[in-house]
Amino acid sequence: MNHWLSFRDHAPSQLASLITLARGLKSREPAAVAAARGAIRDQILGLIFFNASLRTRVSFEAAMIRFGGQAICLDVGGSTWNLEHRDGAVMNADKAEHIKEAAPVLSRYCDALAVRTFAGLKSASEDAADALIRAFARHSTVPLLNMESALEHPCQALADWMTVEERFGTARGRRFVLTWAPQAKAVPMAVPHSAALAAAAAGMHLTIAHPPGYDLNPAILDQARSWCAEHGTRFQITHEQLDACVDAEVVYVKSWGSAALYGQTETQLEDFKRYAGWMVDTRHLRTPDTILMHCLPVRRNVVISDAALDDPRCVVVDQAENRLWTQAAVLTRVFKQRTDSRGS
Question: Under CATH, what is the fold of the domain 156-319?
Answer without folding.
Answer: Rossmann fold (3.40.50)
